[in-house]
């Protein structure tokens, strides 16, 4: 398969193979130009601030289109951990309440809830079955005191994809909210903000942006009454006058979760990269990623590797994960060959994006074969 996005659009890839996208994507040349444009706009004084606002509005509009929502449902914070912590604080959980998470979650999806155990909040963990968690598995841990279910759309660990829409259909019949972490899916597969209560995402992985932003999407249908426990001048309707009277009012939409300016260099870069992804077409990107992923899975299986990631396209996205207790050593040796992927947590992970192609797959398989033949790793 040929790539959908040319590698020539990226900065300094050269002849390297980049399957590191689940950790971070390579920098786009257009993003470098976008950051330079931000620096140029800084020299305009007040005019620069107007330009920043325009780019921020454009970036939020792009993200809203990806999520099937509206720009006023999008807030930009510093990182996804901050976003999840902000949500945890806004819920006002009390002793006796519980939160349901699964054991395939990244630490940022677990730690903000563990802190609440000190206040008597129970954190209930859902076990995986063959590296997958189903809606039924999650729902079996939900009861009348469950305030929120926290789950990734696609697991960072196994690459398995959750049918969150089925889960949400059941949760809507209760008072339990759903927070969907789309960090490992947004940008390469469809994500619908109307089929969850909160969406969380990072800026520097599949969205092809850079470090420095945490994306929060809010579906107001069941969350309009939730207010953050942290407040800043960006989150209130009037940043000056009411304060003199000792009062303030939160913004009526997602902006209430923004305490101050976002990282504008990151906003400029993300505005560029999300426009590129939208122009390429998320459905086309998804078809490409799944097709190339199938090609990689078939060759890994033929080579004798044990996969965590489901073979069925409907149950995965871009992460292809292989069971290995030598993942770190394998990734380090592949890096010396100019092949980037993630190794650790009892596996190694190749993350397929729109700029990857069949030649990349062949390079990876050949690289793994070379490691095995030298006896530097055990299948």
UniProtKB/TrEMBL annotation:
Aminotransferase class V domain residues: 50-364
GO molecular function per UniProt: catalytic activity
Pfam families: Aminotran_5
Domain of life of the native organism: Bacteria
InterPro entries, alphabetized: Aminotrans_V_dom (IPR000192), PyrdxlP-dep_Trfase (IPR015424), PyrdxlP-dep_Trfase_major (IPR015421), PyrdxlP-dep_Trfase_small (IPR015422)
Protein name from the UniProt record: Aminotransferase class V domain-containing protein
